[in-house]
Design goal:
Helices cover about 30% and strands about 25% of the residues. It has helices at about 65-70, 130-135, 135-140, 145-165, 205-215, 250-270, 285-290, 310, 315-325, 340-355, 380-390, 405-420, 500-510, 515-530, 540-550, 580-585, and strands spanning about 25-40, 40-50, 50-55, 75-85, 100-110, 170, 190, 200, 220-225, 240-250, 280-285, 305, 330-335, 360-365, 370, 395-405, 435, 440-445, 450-455, 480-485, 490-495, 535-540.
Amino acid sequence: MTDILGNMRRTNHCNELALKDEGSEVTLMGWVQYRRDHGGVIFIDLRDREGLTQVVINPEISPEAHRKGHDIRSEFVLGVKGKVEKRLEGMTNPNLKTGEIEVIVTELKILNKAETPPFLIEDKIDVSENLRLKYRHIDLRRPRLQNNLILRHKASSLIRNYLNNNRFLEIETPVLTRSTPEGARDYLVPSRVNPGNFYALPQSPQLFKQLLMISGFDRYYQIVRCFRDEDLRADRQPEFTQIDMEMSFLGEEEIINITEGMMADLFGELLNIELELPFKQILYDDALDRYGLDKPDIRFGLELKDISDIVEDSGFKVFSSVVKKGGIVKALNAKGCIDMSRKEIDDLTDFVAVYKARGLAWIKVKEDGWQSPIVKFFTDQEKEKLSRRIEMEPGDLVFFVADQPKVTNEALGHLRNHIGKKRGLIDKKKFSFIWVTHFPLLEYDETEKRYHALHHPFTAPLEEDYDLLENNPLEVKSRAYDLVLNGSEIGGGSIRIHRKDLQERVFEALGMDKKTYQEKFGFLLSALASGAPPHGGIALGFDRLVMILCRQASIRDVIAFPKTQKAACLLTEAPSGTSKAQLDELCLKVKQIDKNL
């Protein structure tokens, strides 16, 4: 019995051959990138995941191969045998790794034909992302995406080696678990054997890795799939991968050091970049004060300035009234941006409105004075203080937002990033890490009228803030830390609560009564009471990290089969409906929704 390959077995990949192989007989297999017929001699660029090699079908050397060669088209799958020869003088291709040689075909097999692809298998193609995702199996043949996934594989291998060498154990945790409060929406899985009950797909292995610490496995890791039913953006997916780590008997600095060492290994091995260690650190409050966001991009300046104290009693009521109501006024000095037109400024006003800012005031600093509708409202003394505080110089364009702290910071923080990108202030070759620490433990949700955990409800508060939990919970700082790279949060973690009594106090601060937290977290409280060690950890977004390593704008370009922004897989047409029989088995009934509502 013989298979379709017969006695033809691949001996080389398409980018391995060089002048040293001249005279060797090789067998290559792959896809047809291009076919050219030059006066009877057929030239084919054969492609596999490693690259391209030119193969030549000469009728004088192999008439049978040449006869078959007339039928070959783009994306046909071929197997070829032949001899490696040096290309003729003047015929080399310096842009191709194998550009000095070619393979003269002695035997050819068409392993499969192909219909005309919906787009060219090239990196620089003008085609919609939806079409690429619909034909993802073809899109993945493109060199850029193949290189992205190869780098992703190398990154995961390096991470495993690093953690293994640092005494970590890789332990799997359940995918079918129970739904817990806080965080994003869970994906629910109905149970057939327990009708009316549901599993939840894990948003994170948080509780399981804590239980592993309590079980005595003092260093755990997992490169793990997680799931969140949330609104999507370029750097989010409903299913994603994170590097999950947990450690016992150490504090923040040890966890930070281990994480920084892993980043140094990754960037050194994959990009040949030596990172400067240790990474910078900034307190959460300082990050908001200077950059407006808790994930600051520190590759450029344009830091924000709080001017609330200067304008509190000014004649500009838009500013002064906000301060008197407990809000803040901050300024962003766009250095050298005086050339912005009024239309551009109006566009930026619309931009900050997305972040709920009700307006964007501005001042252009000219050689002969300030230009702005708001200048007339300030006294000379206020102007002098503003000029000094904001460091205003001729050529500058200063923007102001006055609102509640959250709105002001978010609006100006995102405006800062927008101007940095638009004006080319960011060095795209630079990788700038920073740790953000001492986050608030809780935040208040005005809609639900209750407190939420800023990270998760198992994060330890600072010891000196324990006494604030009951009477002033918003003042409590946590032992949490986020790792930010180029303005993207790539990881977050904390020291966990390891005492039952403290965990109960945090649950109560979140508005849970004893019955509620016993019902939802009784197993965790029991574990904490069994002798839990001090422990902490971190989870790093692997997709987002690889996206930055590959210098891509979307994590969809570093995931083999991603979902769209509507959480759909265009390739398999998931999600889809199901049969009534399956629904009956699960004791489920689908409610019909009127699409006209």
